[in-house]
Known about the structure:
Elements: H1 9-38, H2 43-52, H3 54-89, H4 92-117, H5 135-146, H6 149-175, H7 186-210, H8 223-232, H9 243-253
Helix pairs in contact: 1-2, 1-3, 3-5, 4-5, 4-7, 5-6, 6-7, 7-8
Amino acid sequence: MNHIGILKPSTLVNLLNAIGIPAVLLYVASMFIIPAVQGEWSWQYVQNVWDRWQSINAAMLALISSIAAFNISRFHANEQREREFSAAKAFLPSALDELCSYFKASATFLMQVWEHLGTDRTAPFEGAVPTPPTDYKAIFSSCIEHADPEVGEYLARILRLIQIHNARIREVAGSMEVGSTMVSSRANIKSYLYRIAELQSLVNKLFPFARSMKPFDRDKLVWEDFRNSYGNLDVWVDEYDGLKGFTERALARHSDL
């Protein structure tokens, strides 16, 4: 069940804890500590107090039982979610390897386009258009479903960027066809190379976590991450008209990457 009424189960449990636990503490003080002090530690006096407040005692016992039951249920649900995420995460490294191969093929394609744009373009473009992988989608979907929100959002972000990347590759491929009215420029290709390096950097930071070697790293991307990614993609930044400066300026503008 995703919701209870208008509330998510986790929100309901948090609300119950926020209200119920202070109420239970107040009840313990009112039914045990205060009567004992007022009755000068007379057990008979404490029992008389309990006898007069039987209804509230029954209500508080019900509240305590509810708090315990909901928290036990959440504990077991979290354990189950963690087990399912561990099972899904076991396939994550292979999905990341698949994406890395695709990113490298995409970078190679864009570099071929770059070279072609530097010629008179009388000869037809013969670069190989990379085929997007598919297996990673199910693995990412399963991980997102069972991961902590922070990890799930990180994976979802990668998925969103891959979809945008796929559209760009199709657009560039279409512009290279004979008779196409679409136009690609080296400025476009430079920005697309930067975006592939961004995806590669996000995936690189995810590898140690996927292999259970390190905790999840949500630190923002820096130039060193991009430098390593360009190396992974066999992109030599000095050969692409100020790609390093372009990357550094983009990082300065988008400090939340």
